[in-house]
TrEMBL record:
Keywords: Kinase, Transferase. The lineage of its organism: Bacteria, Pseudomonadati, Verrucomicrobiota, Verrucomicrobiia, Verrucomicrobiales. This is Putative kinase. GO terms for molecular function: kinase activity. It comes from the Bacteria.
Amino acid sequence: MHTASHPCHLVSGPPAAGKTTYAIRLAKDLGAVLLDSDQVAERLVRAGLTLAGLDPNDRDSPAYKNAFRSAVYETLYDLARGHLERLPVVIAGPFTSEGAQAHWPEALEERLGVRPTFHFVTCSPDERRRRMGARGEARDLPKLADWESYRMLCREERPVWPHVWVPNSMDEAMG
């Protein structure tokens, strides 16, 4: 197995929990390359969905997940592996279904050449809903339009593998 020369951190959590804000701060503190799933793939995903005649704001349908989810994550891993020879790397993305897979950290270590330090960013669902509304992203509109249905599909539980717990809301910070 190829081993990387620098550390890798993976920041996960449900949408609008504050992953990007946390990952930016972590990358700055570490002098690391930041690979955020939205920044890396957003334009390509929107173009591909549009070309396929699908809603360019969709990030939750089976069509999106079948066509793009794996490709976006594999792109992040390829980019991370390429940078880890020279610099520390922070990868940010939801990785929600991976949180239920006990052996995912080992598979990712094999893929990257280093075992990442995992961080799970979370906040209350009500706060996530407020944040989605405030950030004004078109990709959040379908979630906000039918919040309760979206919440039923969104995995919010802590990952089953060891991780740094990052509570990121006022009610959790006080409690």
